[in-house]
């Protein structure tokens, strides 16, 4: 056995780039829908070991960090290519670039972190444990920056190794998703320690997080469900057919019939939730939508009860002097066909909903996936929607649900009673992308201590309570509807009160410990 391990170690040391790429390629198996937690430790453990072997060569470490990141984002984001097949006659040419250039760019964050770590290792002769802890700090900082700069894409963060597991994810209510990622990577660093008793601390850290999750989930009585009944509709309309004019009436009938079916089973529904861009039309511009709504809903409402409200995703237009502006919006309608409130998507998808340098790129013939001249315009963040008899709703349109700050309630903004995520993951087929999406959205409920209701065109639709437990849902690729009373909110969590401040405090505290414990001897210049 010892000989076999020695052979494996020698092979890995002789082929660091290949093994780094392999470690990255398998990492998404630790995320939803696979959730193989040992893969998280195998992948990052091998990566940390390879980094230690080449710790004093920053240029090689940059390459190692890049190939690891490229492998991770290549397999983890391969489903992005499905979006370029929806209208293959227009976008098939871009598919190879999307599935390679996006991972290549995202991998630079980790590569730069490893390059900086290599310079630190060349300067200071740290023991393996301190070196591994410092690497964990730099990697989670790189992940934070990846989710923030250049519009940000906090997809499949290191936290998702733990965040895909309900009990381990509860720590996000205290330190947020980035703090959760730091703790998870610290547990990997502890496994790299030279002494066995220090390696056991990794297990202790995991058990401590597990205990916190048990106490939060089961240690206190849950508040009673609210009196608001919500009905969630999942029409499962193919993205390839969604905007075909000849299919428009069929799509509208599908949504209305599912809505009527839901009201038959839950006639006391107060709020109906439809997905992002549910109706393929400008429904607030006299297209007959209000009349059809009035015809479909009141007769099925409970006796003596007002028709339910409908919150739906829709495209909205504002006519301008030089050009019309279009918005990806959430609209709150009364059951008798009146538009009561609306909010516009703040965080748009680059190349999907707009183009960077829009005018220049359109001038050379490029267009975003929605093929809307000029792209969508963005609205303000932290919108709130409500009406008489409804709780305060915080709409999160599509991938806005993966950004922790968009679910927060900054000073001067009312704390909502429920987070509402409307999305259309039909762009990405039945791959693992929609599973990754909902796993990340669920963390917003845990972080904020708020229930979260989600309607997705093709799935996965669900309702989570304020602790992230799924109460009801519909699987990917099925049409259906379900109803239930809305769960109640909890008191604001520690993370809801302080945001990422505790993450940065934890990060800085660990950095100071490493600085204090580092050897005073300075390594000779290389």
Radius of gyration: 25 Å
- From the N-terminal CA to the C-terminal CA, the straight-line distance is 36 Å
Tell me about the largest β-sheet. Answer: 6 strands, mixed
Percent in strands: 5-15%
Can you count the beta strands? 11
Major sheet: arrangement of strands: 5-4-3-2-1-11
**Low-pLDDT ranges:** none
Shape: globular
H/E order of the elements? HHHHHHHHHHHEHEHEEEHEHEHEEEEHH
What do the pLDDT scores average to?
87
Total helix count? Answer: 18
Helical content stands at 40-55%
SS class: alpha/beta
Summary, kept brief:
45% of the residues lie in helices and 12% in strands. The chain is α/β, with parallel strands linked by helices and 526 residues long. The mean pLDDT is 87.
What does this structure look like?
There is one protein chain. This protein is of the alpha/beta class and 526 residues long. Helix content is 45%, strand content 12%. It has 18 helices and 11 strands. It has helices at residues 2-14, 16-26, 37-53, 58-76, 88-91, 95-123, 128-146, 160-163, 166-169, 172-191, 196-218, 248-265, 289-296, 358-363, 404-407, 433-448, 494-498, 501-517, and strands at residues 229-234, 271-273, 309-318, 325-333, 339-344, 393-397, 418-423, 452-456, 461-464, 470-474, 480-485. The strands form 2 sheets. Strands 5-4-3-2-1-11 form a 6-stranded mixed β-sheet, covered by helices on one side. A 5-stranded mixed β-sheet has the order 6-7-8-9-10, with helices on one face. Helix 15 (404-407) links the parallel strand 6 and strand 7. Helix 3 (37-53) crosses helix 10 and helix 7 (128-146) runs antiparallel to helix 18 (501-517).
């Amino acid at each position: 056995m010892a000989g076999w391990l020695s052979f494996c170690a020698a092979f890995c040391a002789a082929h660091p780039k290949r093994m780094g790429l392999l470690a990255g390629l398998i990492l998404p198996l630790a995320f939803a829908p696979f959730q193989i937690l040992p893969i998280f430790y195998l992948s990052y453990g091998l990566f940390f070991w390879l980094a230690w072997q080449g710790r004093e060569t920053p240029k090689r470490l940059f390459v190692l960090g890049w190939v690891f990141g490229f492998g991770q984002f290549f397999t983890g984001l391969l489903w992005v290519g499905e979006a370029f097949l929806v209208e293959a006659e227009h976008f098939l040419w871009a598919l190879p670039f999307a599935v390679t250039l996006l991972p290549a760019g995202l991998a630079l964050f980790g590569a730069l972190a490893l390059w900086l770590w290599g310079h630190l290792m060349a300067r200071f002769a740290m023991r393996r444990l301190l070196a591994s802890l410092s690497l964990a700090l730099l990697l989670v900082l790189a992940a934070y920056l990846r989710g923030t700069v250049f519009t940000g894409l906090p997809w499949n963060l290191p936290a998702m190794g733990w965040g895909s597991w309900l009990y381990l994810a509860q720590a996000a209510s205290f330190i947020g998703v980035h703090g959760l990622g730091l703790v998870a990577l610290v547990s990997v660093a502890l496994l790299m320690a030279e002494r066995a008793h220090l390696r056991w601390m990794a297990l202790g850290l995991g058990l401590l997080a597990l205990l916190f999750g048990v106490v939060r989930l089961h240690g206190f009585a849950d508040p009673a469900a609210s009196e608001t009944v919500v009905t969630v509709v999942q029409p499962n309309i193919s993205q390839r057919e969604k905007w075909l004019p000849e299919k428009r009436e069929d799509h509208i009938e599908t949504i209305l019939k599912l809505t009527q079916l839901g009201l038959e089973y839950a006639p006391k529904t107060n709020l109906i939730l439809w997905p992002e861009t549910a109706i393929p039309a400008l429904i607030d511009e006299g297209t007959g939508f209000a009349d059809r709504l009035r015809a479909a809903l009141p007769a099925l409402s409970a006796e003596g009860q007002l028709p339910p409200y409908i919150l739906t995703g829709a495209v909205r237009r504002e006519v301008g002097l030089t050009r019309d502006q279009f918005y990806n919006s959430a609209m709150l309608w009364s059951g008798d066909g009146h538009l009561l409130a609306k909010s516009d998507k703040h965080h748009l998808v680059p190349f999907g909903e707009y183009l960077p340098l829009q005018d220049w790129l359109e001038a050379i013939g490029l267009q975003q996936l929605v093929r809307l001249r000029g792209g969508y315009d963005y609205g303000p963040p932290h919108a709130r929607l409500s009406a008489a008899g409804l709780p305060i709703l915080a709409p999160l349109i599509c991938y806005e649900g993966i950004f922790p700050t968009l679910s927060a309630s900054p000073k001067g903004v009312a704390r909502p009673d429920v987070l509402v995520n409307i999305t259309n993951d039909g762009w990405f087929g039945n791959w693992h992308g929609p599973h990754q999406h909902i796993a990340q959205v669920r963390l917003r409920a845990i972080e904020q201590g708020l229930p979260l209701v989600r309607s997705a065109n093709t799935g996965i639709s669900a309702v989570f309570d304020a602790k992230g437990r799924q109460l009801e849902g519909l699987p990917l690729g099925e049409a259906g509807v379900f109803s239930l009373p809305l769960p109640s909110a909890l008191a604001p969590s520690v993370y809801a009160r302080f945001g990422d401040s505790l993450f940065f405090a934890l990060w800085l505290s660990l950095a100071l410990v490493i600085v204090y414990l580092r050897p005073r001897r300075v390594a000779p210049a290389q």
